[in-house]
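User: You have something folded?
Assistant:
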Amino acid sequence: MASQLIREWSGIQQFPAATQAKLLELLGKLKQENVSTLTILVMGKGGVGKSSTVNSITGERAVAVSAFQSEGPRPVMVSRSRAGFTLNVIDTPGLVEGGYVNDQALDMIKRFLLNKTIDVLLYVDRLDAYRVDNLDRQVIKAITDSFGKEIWSRALVVLTHAQLSPPDGLQYDDFFSRRSEALLKVIRLGARIRKQDFQGTAIPVVLVENSGRCTKNESDEKIIPNGIAWIPNLVETITHVVSNGSKAILVDKKLIEGPNPDARGKILIPFILAFQYFFVIKQIQRAIKDDIASESKPSWELRDMGSASRKF
């Protein structure tokens, strides 16, 4: 990451005083734990609010957002520094194209992340997307196949478009709970996460509202319908994930390309040759000898053998 342009995090000054104080407190706690650099990977389908969430976290228009284009065509890393702390947020293209997982976009993301360490994965979806389906599961599986199951021990789910009225007269928290559990179930299935994985650590879910119509509290902080100031809450949840005892994900060449099949094959060659010698070649040789020994000889060959013995 040395070649990445790191700018002063001036956007933090755009937050209300209460939000600034909370963010600086949280970043200070990370520095006390010897965490001076935090790299956040933002992934999900297209049009769910990934880029807008990146801008909300940094407090500035760090990446372009257009009503006519759901996200940028390639990954972008935004790096900001404040009081000796460096924040890297990586925005990525959507992982779905034409109703299928976009393997080209996924490969581009992996190449971009080569030799980078991912501290936190933000998996972004929409709160107002009421259903989950097999495509969601395929997206989760694609992320897991690319970065390993361990990526989910460093993940949190972000549900955007949180400023809504729940359908069918549901209470807001009840609707949020149902939507969260449905998506978490798909993540567990797609990532093949078992109950004993990650020592039972649950993937947290955070609500986000990036639009300008977001309600504010008396401290001028953006809040969601349940009254939570969501930007400090998101950053606080991120710091909890960083401190949960799991390891950050180093994206090296082996992780991207998988184990070398040629190297694995070379290790097996001596065992294969030994198996062939003892269980194939030796069996064939023994069978040939047995056939020769039991073969009935013609009378002329027996007569010649008898004549030859009499001469001696």
